[in-house]
């Protein structure tokens, strides 16, 4: 397993929901912001359908606030929500256009995506929103560099990222050492306090630590006690 390229300065993380980033990528984000990189978050939805018993009109603003607090803990201050409907996101041209526009606005060299495969592991299905957002985002990276696919975005100069790195995958090709940022990743996930309380009666910090330990443990073939793995895609410049 190779070291993920880190010879870049600006990256964006594109996901479907608040907490998606913290379920696997926050430790890597903390590493990168400590290196002085400019990392920004783009979320397709506000996660408004994500808390049982709490109506979307109340849940959406709460989850946005938790995501902003969580982002701040790992050094991210720019968080954008695109307003697609939580639980009903469709892999569509509209979604591709919105994501291509976000890529042009933020002009990243690295785009980080959540697992958009059919499953997490054998026998465990992935979320429809995760699949739709990840696949649309992978296409949007190319769209952002083409002036003709979405001519309605002409006011935004075209932009072509160099890479996309997908986390939460079963067998990654690359990894980063996050041994020094495990604790801040736990704190970042625990900032989704109301969301985690609704998932389990276990203390929020214990839930967060279990998730981070599972997602950021040692990886075969990579020399680190704690690592986040990625599948890396390359894009022509």
TrEMBL record:
<dbReference type="InterPro" id="IPR003737">
    <property type="entry name" value="GlcNAc_PI_deacetylase-related"/>
</dbReference>
<protein>
    <submittedName>
        <fullName>PIG-L family deacetylase</fullName>
    </submittedName>
</protein>
<dbReference type="InterPro" id="IPR024078">
    <property type="entry name" value="LmbE-like_dom_sf"/>
</dbReference>
<keyword id="KW-0862">Zinc</keyword>
<dbReference type="Pfam" id="PF02585">
    <property type="entry name" value="PIG-L"/>
</dbReference>
């Amino acid at each position: 397993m190779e070291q993920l390229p880190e010879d870049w300065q600006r990256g964006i993380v594109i996901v479907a929901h608040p907490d998606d980033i913290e379920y696997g990528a926050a430790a890597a984000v903390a590493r990168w912001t400590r290196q002085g990189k400019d990392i920004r978050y783009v979320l397709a939805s506000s996660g408004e359908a994500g808390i049982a018993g709490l109506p979307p009109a109340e849940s959406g603003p709460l989850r946005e606030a938790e995501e902003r607090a969580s982002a701040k803990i790992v050094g991210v201050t720019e968080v954008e929500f695109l307003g697609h409907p939580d639980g009903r996101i469709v892999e569509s041209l509209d979604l591709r256009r919105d994501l291509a526009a976000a890529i042009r606005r933020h002009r990243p060299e690295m785009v980080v995506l959540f697992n958009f495969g059919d499953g997490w592991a054998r026998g465990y299905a992935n979320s429809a929103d995760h699949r739709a957002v990840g696949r649309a985002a992978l296409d949007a990276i190319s769209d952002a560099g083409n002036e003709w696919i979405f001519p309605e975005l002409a006011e935004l100069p075209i932009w072509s990222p160099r890479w996309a790195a997908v986390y939460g995958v079963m067998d990654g090709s690359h990894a980063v050492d996050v041994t020094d940022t495990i604790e801040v990743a736990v704190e970042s996930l625990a900032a989704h306090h109301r969301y985690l309380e609704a998932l389990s009666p276990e203390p929020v910090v214990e839930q967060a630590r279990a998730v981070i330990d599972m997602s950021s443990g040692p990886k075969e073939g990579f020399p680190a006690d704690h690592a986040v793995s990625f599948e890396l895609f390359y894009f022509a410049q």
